[in-house]
Write a structure and sequence with these properties.
Chain lengths: 350, 616, 616, 350
């Protein structure tokens, strides 16, 4: 993929704060279905990293297996990518960050990849608050294997074949809040503005960012009776907050009403501005956030927005207290103790 | 628990090395039978270290159950002036501290054997051809130890004293061992030492020596050390410069990582208190090996340690590592399978599975440490090979080697610097103007890789377990797929040429060659002498150290008429790999000697089998 | 997606069966190149079924990408009056509907080949030695189909018409096929039929026949049916009386369970609407196989279906099934590995891994269906064997067999009743006054089991993957463990004697024997004739149907000087198993013919390789 | 194990409603450490099945791997037992119940077996509301491998070696309520009365019963600094409700105050009587129950009692609409369709 992106160069090339054009953030040509929600998400990821001015070489892309998991090949070809095995991206991402904790990591997975086969590793990643952006491209089905229900499918949702799902959906946001992730939100592939703001904020966060993005599968789950279709989302999306983001390198003197808006200062000095749309909204209270999500589900709403943010909790990397440089490339002098150490140890074993 | 599973030595008792008449010096085995959790480890360690300190070659084996407390446990100490360290089939002296197994323990003695036991239990009824030394352990213990709850522990030191006296051990040496054992706890040291003395005095006063076994100072251990294989492997990993360690606890591999953690905390934390390593206790083995691959992908020297069940769970990722060509060092401290099997018994039963671990046409590299020294050396080798070959390397140790104490000469500091393999820097990329990840530039089947974070617009490539071409692009083209698979075969041949050579222990004129690996070596070394001295039968011998097999292995087989492959599994697994690798005319020569009851293989079993098959 | 991975047939074009002069009747292959998701399946199916209905032996192969829409797809139809159904290496007629691959498709034609293509794309420039039939597909389609969004689909029927006319197919037969294809949708049927006619008429009026290929009615398919291997396997499972089915979707195995679900819903729901089966879509393959073992433990005939990656994930449970001796039927519809590999390409690459799946000394039983008929028959056999042997049985099919359409005579209803193996009832227990689960009462290594729920106080036993003795009690005793392991070896020998015998296709006087299995058979059958007719070279041939190998296999090898094992993997996996199983003097005879680029093996590749190795 | 239980028979043998003595419910002699919490739980299981008068042959015992998972060998030797592989008991139990849904299934697992390696299968079992009793003998460590922390260890809890846990504990009760289990409670191996009542009620329930039983590991996690020690539990256990249980075969005319007590009628007609000890207690409201648990955790309390009960939700077996008899032993006549069916199918394929 790395070398095949060749979109026409614009006349007066617009560039970001690094002087890079957006095409430097593009990926290989997608081979997902036309109209697949996953493609829109890839677009937003490209926009977000471009607008935040992140050096592509400083980013690692990770995924499991599925249509969604293929998408890292379709954005940011200048970033190293790792399309691993089904459901096991969390482990690979954890290892990659241990090997090089100085990089930004973004993982893209699917509802099957994460919530079916991947549930075990996913829950432990959340618990560790591993510093990465974890996006679930959630379409309620296994797209790549032709549309069977996944564990996020809603009760009563139907397949084209008429089969009806009778098991309750697993809400990854509630789960993430409870298990220890520190930046949790839900969006919709069709909601450009909200999704872009959320990903930009995610880039500024240090800790596990879990974004559950409803991303319709136009081929297998976009029909009447599906609860993950474009139509259903247009009818049932309910934003709990309006997400505004002011990057640290921009003038943050933007007006906002402290009464109705939470202003969260991110690690890099950027500001996340969350304007209440529900009075029972409080993104700093875990218990509150969980109740809000569970109630919305009972009401049959698909709540979107950022549900919970905690910028103080140490990440897994913080807990390990590692040297500043990437472990993977430390010189021999720093990882192989001198001969004297071995001799000393041997002596004490006599 | 049924009484069905308490007796250990269920093999036919055999006559001891010498009859009851005439002294037997520095050549016997002691088996201490206790209850798991009764804290006999320190006592046994004191016995072992004392003999060692007297310059006598020793080896100790802990045969423990898969539970935490209450089940029978045996600790065997072998003293051998000849330096044999394999398990000795015949037990010469039993210290029967476990009432539940006492009878069976005594029955397992050969004629002329010795039984030291609690006075009250009258075991004499069971045998009239062994020497009994009844000892009132509880009474003696009570006398030296006022604190009731400590007695269970202290009692063990009493038998140390009894044994020391009966074997005429040097008491000063024993005291030194005791004090060293409890180095940081003066009170404990004193208490335990008084228990040893009490036992010693009792034996001196109340027991009359009737057996031939005793010790004499030697100098065979002068500049040697004693260490467990897993601790040695951990040392190797630290000096290999490991930076990312992941694990999920499983017997008998846990102590590899547990020892490593201690070492890293001590030697790999920088002045500012920051660590040059990361250790993660993963949620399971799938995660552990996944983390290893992720870390290695970024250039980290990463490893995990596990045993059979964990190996099975790592299958899918092992295939990814092979096909996406990512380094990884995986320790398999083998235990008895199939399935959960006998978690605290030893075996060499994962060889065949690991060689082809994962679906599809997958092949792996294995290193086969045959001593604690090699646990250290081959651990370092494993990281170098894994990064040079860009593929997972499995270090196949076992419970016997990993969790038991072994004598060894001290380890040597690695002369060679770390060999990190073919990695391109930003400068290289500038010079080359890009690269193709899976191109066989050098004809050795090994491509060049870049690490995430390399600051060059052409550094990135996409890693995947799906079909890919030279440029790491996704492909389903028949020709591109086949080309990559053939390159991987070429790479495997390169690996063959880089593997540590086998050790040719004896290549005389015999038509019969023996092949063994890992802990089987100890029994084979001794068996060859038995074959010589008892049957005037000469054998040649080669010890394998790696798979795929190097040319030397083929040559050795070619040079002999009959080859006995001796190993500790039911299905002749290494023999199978040899059969697949050797030219058919040589494969014909292979014969199998197998030992698979969970006990470490012993020389006698090997000898008997050889004698039988050779029709001597 | 890089353009790098779009051309399919990358092999050297070869001359067609006959030169361009003189007619070639009922002996050619058509390759339709389209874009995945363009809905060409129905059109291709109509073509296939029409030829079939004309009594001409046909086979169809769908070569699709591992994505849902947009990537190139090829469908190959072979008509062969001789009844050959293997992939034909040479494509005679290309229907180039995919602009992206059109050039490569045309280049892949042998001299004298035929290209039917969209008029606007001028492909003539690329070859002057093939016949071109330009067709204005879009224009024609627009004319017959007013609804724009339907045109993409309908367009495909136009080429059906063109091909029908050029090959002189019977139009009535084609219409019948179309109407059957859209049986329940009258409107669709009419629309598609009109598209076929339009294509037919255009060809009639505007194209002048310049190629030698045409069809003639035959009667070779009169009482045959067409079915996919996975559908046949599903039928087998239903008639085997399966009650618990678990799965986790994975290409190419999904359709086994999907077909089975349809069957069960239709034929296994009782009048009161209640089901005599349970199907569970598990969360992953570890869970799927775990559920199978749990269900089988209670006596249920349970199964799962998967492919390579799933097999790797099932490793640990596979070992539990072997050691705890629990039945299970596991379908491995093989695809190209290692790792994710090429999920929509075919291979026989899991043979070696499955034979020893899991750590420790584990060994499994494999059945090797070589036709859709055997997919049906061996599925039934698998359940009987698994329950009789109390061990997991793997049915090793592949993508080519499982997901493609094959002609076959109709399936026979099983004569034998279900064989459920050694299960003790409450009455038995009353009579015997208890039992020992793992006792070898009958000397065949197979013990008697009871099922949970058996109402007798002595019915219960404890199932575990840890060390156990005859009475299923936990043990760590060396002798008890070894005794059980030796019994399992005995049981494996019993399995050997119960395996379906290989098929001895030819055992003449030749010194050369061929051994193949599964889908490789189709190519071998044809290759043997090529060897005869083109090289006057006689070969004997045996097709394997199971592992462990039965006596017949040994005899066949013994009876020949040279044995070629022909298979679809890189590492000669079945040859490896033979090498391990055969006496050394016979193992010497084994030679390997391998095909591993993801395409089904073809006769020409086999012939060329045999000629080369035989030095003819 | 099945044949080794030989305790002395009491003088005037007491029997249950089936006329069976308690010794008919005993198991093999335990080989767990003296004082291990797991042993007490085995005792309660024996008492409960004895007092409920369940035929031992009608019970299946399942477990994974661990000290806790060994315990099925130490109770009810007359019941079939399956000690499977580590972390995978849920799958085996699911299969076993599919093969014979007429039996009672009790699974015993550990915190490592369930919450570390077993998390994936565990969450999906909960989601399916598989009708079984699932007991987690929770000691916060891996006992059998000598005491490493598990994923239920609390932040700040220390090992004997001094190592401190810095990752948040996973609360299996909150998880179970959210994912779909229908009978969720927590108890303590030392609390005989409460635990016995809970297990008896569990036997009467149809659906997933998740009992998180704190069960101290006396060998590796019962010291100062441990948050799973006997001492810690005595100091921090906080019962949210008093659990009373009246089996259907006993006179239920027992008095209770409807204001302060929830009376739940179980499937078999037994009555579960839950007396409020916290005013914010409501065992019929999921959202409420989750908040209560999260709040208690914030307060550093170990909440015990039954948190949530739902007797109406269909179990996984109900959803499958199976025939009444066990699938595993249906006669050939009911599982192999007649020849005519095959011929019919073949005809339609011509
Ligand atoms: C071990 C394993 N099992 C099964 C598969 C087959 N498989 C590929 S993708 C997939 C599900 C993908 O679903 P999801 O993660 O939701 O991604 P989507 O395609 O819907 O975007 C499955 C089951 C596999 N590749 N590996
Ligand atoms: C696949 C696998 N990995 C690791 C092990 C080793 N092991 C046995 S029990 C256990 C943990 C048990 O902890 P828990 O479930 O809490 O039970 P406890 O002993 O604490 O009661 C582990 C890691 C194993 N048996 N199998
Ligand atoms: S199948 Fe669905 S999920 Fe996959 S690419 Fe197409 S629309 Fe997207
Ligand atoms: S180690 Fe801990 S959990 Fe295991 S038996 Fe002993 S006390 Fe119980
Ligand atoms: Mg999906
Ligand atoms: Mg525990």
């Amino acid at each position: 993929m790395a070398t095949t992106a060749t979109p026409p160069a614009p006349k007066a090339p617009k560039t970001n704060r690094l002087g890079l054009q957006i095409l430097e953030y593009r990926g290989g040509k997608t081979n997902l279905c036309a109209g697949c929600g996953h493609n829109s998400i890839s677009e937003r990821i490209i926009d977000a990293f471009y607008e935040m001015g992140v050096q592509p070489e400083r980013v690692m892309k990770l995924s499991g297996i599925g249509c969604s998991s293929k998408s890292p090949a379709f954005f940011m070809s200048r970033s190293h990518g790792f399309n691993s095995v089904h459901g096991r991206m969390p482990a690979v991402a954890t290892g990659a960050l241990l090997g090089n904790h100085t990089m930004k990591a973004i993982g893209v997975s699917g509802d099957g990849d994460t919530v079916s086969i991947g549930m075990g590793q996913f829950t432990h990643l959340l618990r560790r608050n591993l510093p990465m952006i974890y996006i679930i491209e959630n379409n309620g089905v296994y797209g790549l294997t032709k549309g069977q229900f996944s564990a996020t499918a809603d009760i009563g949702s139907t397949l084209k074949t008429g089969v009806i799902n009778d098991l309750p959906p697993i809400d990854v946001c509630t789960l993430a809040i409870e298990l220890g992730a520190t930046f949790i939100g839900r969006s919709f592939s069709g909601d450009k503005k909200q999704l872009l703001a959320m990903i930009k904020a995610a880039i500024a966060h240090k800790g596990t960012v879990l974004l559950d993005v409803i991303s319709p599968c136009v081929t297998f789950n976009d029909h009447e009776g599906s609860t993950k279709s474009y139509k259903y989302m247009q009818e049932h999306e309910e934003a709990i907050s309006e997400v505004g983001f002011v990057p640290h390198f921009e003038d943050i003197a933007v007006e906002y009403d402290a009464g109705s808006t939470y202003d969260v200062t991110m690690h890099d000095g950027s500001h996340l501005r969350l304007r209440k749309l529900h009075d029972d909204y409080n993104p700093t209270d875990r218990i509150h956030a969980v109740s809000a999500l569970m109630e919305a589900q009972q009401r049959g709403e698909v709540l979107t927005g950022i549900f919970y943010v905690d910028t103080r909790k140490p990440s897994f990397i913080d807990l390990l207290n590692l040297v500043d440089e990437p472990l993977g490339t430390l010189p021999e002098s720093r990882v192989r103790p001198p001969q004297s150490v071995l001799e000393d140890i041997m002596k004490r074993m006599r | 628990m049924a009484t069905g599973d308490v007796a250990l030595n269920t093999e036919q008792p055999q006559a001891a090395a010498a009859g009851p008449t005439g002294e037997i010096v520095n050549d016997f085995s002691i088996q201490v039978a206790t209850v798991n959790g009764s804290g006999s480890q320190s006592a046994n360690s004191v016995l072992l270290k004392s003999l060692f300190a007297m310059g006598i070659p020793v080896s100790g084996k802990n045969l423990f159950p898969s539970n935490i407390a209450g089940l029978p446990t045996w600790y065997t100490i072998r003293a051998s002036k000849h330096g044999y360290v394999a398990r000795k089939k015949e037990i010469d002296i039993v210290v029967a501290m476990n009432a539940e197994t006492a009878k069976d323990d005594v029955l397992s003695l050969p004629a002329g054997g010795v039984a030291i036991h609690e006075e009250s239990a009258n075991l004499q009824q069971h045998r009239d051809d062994v020497v009994f030394y009844p000892v009132p352990f509880d009474k003696i213990t009570a006398a030296v130890c006022s604190e009731a709850k400590l007695r269970k522990l202290v009692k063990n030191m009493v038998y140390v004293g009894v044994v020391a006296q009966l074997l005429e051990m040097d008491l000063a040496t024993v005291e030194a061992a005791v004090r060293r054992q409890f180095a940081k706890k003066q009170k404990a040291a004193d208490l335990n030492w008084s228990a040893v003395q009490a036992g010693y005095d009792y034996a001196k006063v109340s027991l009359t020596k009737q057996d031939p076994f005793r010790v004499e100072r030697m100098h065979a251990t002068d500049d040697k050390i004693i260490i467990e294989g897993n601790a040695a492997a951990a040392l190797g990993c630290m000096f290999a410069g490991v930076t990312v360690v992941t694990w999920y606890p499983i017997t008998p591999s846990s102590s590899v990582v547990e020892s490593l953690i201690d070492l890293l905390k001590k030697y790999r934390v920088e002045p500012d208190g920051k660590a040059t390593f990361a250790v993660v206790q993963a949620e399971d083995e799938l995660a552990a090996v996944g983390m290893v691959l992720g870390a290695a992908w970024t250039g980290a020297r990463s490893m995990t340690a596990t045993s059979g069940p964990g190996i099975s769970l790592m299958s899918e990722f092992a295939g990814l590592g092979y096909f996406a060509e990512i380094p990884a060092v995986i320790f398999d401290i083998q235990r008895v399978g199939p399935s959960t099997g006998m978690p605290t018994r030893t075996a060499q039963g994962d060889i065949l599975t690991v060689a082809h671990l994962s679906h599809g046409d997958t092949r792996h590299v294995m290193l086969l440490p045959g001593s604690v020294k090699e646990c250290f050396e081959l651990s370092i080798e494993a990281f170098d090979l894994s990064e040079q070959l860009q593929t997972p390397v499995f270090v196949m140790s076992d419970l016997d080697l990993g969790m038991n104490n072994w004598m060894t000469e001290p380890f040597q500091y690695p002369e060679k610097p770390m060999r990190r393999g073919k990695v391109l820097s930003a400068d290289d990329l500038q010079r080359l103007d890009g690269f193709a990840r899976y191109q066989d530039v050098d004809g050795d089947g090994i491509g060049y890789r870049t690490l995430p974070g390399t600051e060059h617009p052409k550094a990135a490539f996409f890693t995947r377990g799906s079909g890919h071409n030279e440029r790491a692009l996704y492909t389903e083209r028949p020709d591109e797929y086949q080309q990559q698979m053939e390159r991987l075969t070429r790479k495997y041949e390169t690996a063959r040429s880089m593997m540590p050579a086998p050790v040719l222990i004896a290549d005389g004129t015999s038509k019969v060659g023996l092949i063994a690996y890992g802990t089987t070596d100890f029994a084979v070394v001794e068996s060859r002498v038995q074959m010589q001295t008892e049957y005037q039968f000469e054998t040649d011998y080669m010890r394998l150290r790696a798979y795929p097999f190097t040319r030397e292995v083929h040559d050795f087989v070619a040079a002999h008429d009959r080859i006995y492959v001796i190993e500790q599994n039911r299905d002749a697994q290494m023999l199978s790999l040899l059969k697949l690798d050797l030219p058919a005319e040589d494969a014909v020569k292979l014969r199998s000697v197998r030992h698979f009851n969970g006990l470490p293989i012993d020389a006698r079993s090997v000898t008997d089998e050889l004698v039988m098959q050779e029709g001597i």
